[in-house]
Design goal:
Elements (H helix, E strand, L loop, with lengths): L12 H20 L2 H8 L4 H28 L2 H21 L3 H18 L2 H10 L4 H27 L5 H17 L18 H17 L3 H30 L11 H26 L1 H4 L5 H20 L3 H28 L6 H29 L2 H12 L1 H8 L14
Helix pairs in contact: 1-7, 1-8, 3-4, 3-5, 3-9, 3-10, 3-15, 4-5, 4-6, 4-8, 6-15, 7-11, 7-14, 9-15, 10-15, 10-16, 10-17, 11-14, 13-14, 13-16, 13-17, 15-16
Length: about 425
């Protein structure tokens, strides 16, 4: 999804953000809709290897998250995003070109480094450009666009997958490279002020930016709570996200309805239904509960959405019939998708501009840490007991996040007011 008015002059920040994120959503969906199926059926990865692939990806994100985000805060958030698109594209191409365990493992390192250039930088860039007070509605609009383009991307992935499970990744990997080239002249960066070259004592500046972000994460309030919640989310999510496909294949018999058959077709259909449900939930929720979604402190909403996700995981793991299990998964995914723009806007409102990308990356790093710790640990549990038991435990580990959301209270002075380090 690229602008029809490609040229050499920047466009408005809002338009650039929606074009960028829309293109990213489309390419990401094309690349990853059938990735787990590709890894299991084409590359023949076993469950232990699937979890190791995920652990390597998250460990890479954990290691590189802060250094790359500090670069974004010191030099250019726009440039960081463009670099990330190129590196992500290369990583996806490596995975699609070489369907074997070690190349796929290497691809996770490349892809993970690229993602850390993106993580935090895009949100920080657009928050500076439009202002923290206006970013909530833009994030919500992006999320709805994301869900709609996810539907389109799933259809494209399903069609491309008929030519081979690697084909969607090859198309999407090349698409990321094109995205970087096309968007480079279009993305404005007018309100971010990089540190002048003559004032950049790199190690001192890196240290100061990092400490500002760490102090925000440690300070009582929204950012510290979000950091703790990110750890719980990471611990919980890795087993479900990596093994739900294997659970469906191993536990249920795929339907044969009319001419519809084969794992590629059915997993495309499952993804389409999930995307449609998430989009419908987002649109309805914004219509009937817009005041809660756009609230300055949406504590009750996010706490409730955590409980919905926990219930969805437990039901998916426990149901013995295919369609009820899938319905539970789709409800869980819809709740997670609905919560994303709300918590992103809430977090951005409570971070000072001087270290915004780095602070966001601290929370992303907390999520990666949770996945590095939780993935292998719950993977061992899954191999010694069963995937449903490991999923149930992961859901229970995430449940305390609801209490953390519920207990956040507006502070008299927000994290955005942190004094300089």
């Amino acid at each position: 999804m690229l602008p029809s008015y490609v040229g050499s002059r920047p466009i408005s920040a809002r338009s650039a953000y929606l074009w960028w994120e829309g293109s990213w959503s489309l390419l990401q969906t094309i690349a990853f809709t059938l990735t787990l199926l590709y890894q299991a059926q084409t590359a023949h990865l076993n469950p232990a290897q699937l979890l190791l692939v995920g652990a390597v990806l998250e460990a890479t994100c954990f290691i590189f998250e802060i250094p790359t985000s500090i670069v974004a805060d010191l030099h250019s958030r726009r440039l960081s995003a463009l670099i990330g698109a190129v590196v992500v594209g290369v990583g996806i191409l490596v995975q699609g070109l070489f369907p074997a365990f070690w190349p796929i493992l290497l691809a996770q390192v490349v892809w993970g480094i690229g993602f850390t250039f993106i993580s935090g930088s895009v949100d920080a860039w657009i928050t500076d450009e439009v202002g923290a007070e206006h970013v909530q509605t833009l994030f919500t609009r992006y999320q709805q666009q994301h869900l709609a383009l996810t539907f389109v991307g799933i259809l494209i992935a399903g069609v491309l997958g008929q030519f081979g499970l690697r084909t969607p990744m090859l198309v999407a990997g090349g698409g990321y490279l094109v995205l970087a080239v096309v968007m480079a002249p279009l993305m404005p960066e007018t309100r971010f002020k990089p540190t002048p070259a003559e004032e950049q004592r790199h190690w001192d500046q890196l240290r100061a930016t990092f400490l500002t972000a760490v102090r925000a994460a440690r300070r009582r309030g929204v950012v510290r709570s979000f950091t703790a919640i990110a750890v719980l989310a990471g611990v919980s999510s890795e087993v479900f996200d990596r093994l739900w496909t294997a659970h469906v294949i191993d536990t249920f018999r795929l339907p044969a309805v009319g001419g519809l058959s084969g794992a590629t077709t059915w997993f495309t259909i499952y993804a389409l239904i999930g995307a449609l449900l998430s989009l419908a939930v987002s649109l309805v929720a914004n219509r009937i509960a817009g005041d809660r979604i756009n609230a300055t402190h949406p504590t009750k909403l996010l706490a409730s959405l955590v409980l919905v996700q926990v219930t969805g995981i437990i039901c998916f793991a426990g149901f013995g019939a295919l369609w009820p299990a899938l319905a539970a998964m789709w409800i869980r995914d819809a709740a997670r998708n609905l919560s994303y723009p709300v918590q992103s806007a809430w977090l951005n409102r409570n971070i000072g501009s001087e270290a915004r990308a780095t602070t966001i990356s601290v929370t992303s790093q907390a999520d990666a840490l949770g996945q590095v710790v939780g993935g292998p640990t719950l993977g061992v549990l899954a191999s010694r007991t069963s995937i449903p038991i490991a999923m149930t435990v992961s859901a229970l580990l995430y449940a305390p996040a609801a209490a953390l959301y519920a207990r956040i209270r507006p502070a008299g002075q927000g994290d955005a007011d942190l004094p300089p380090v």
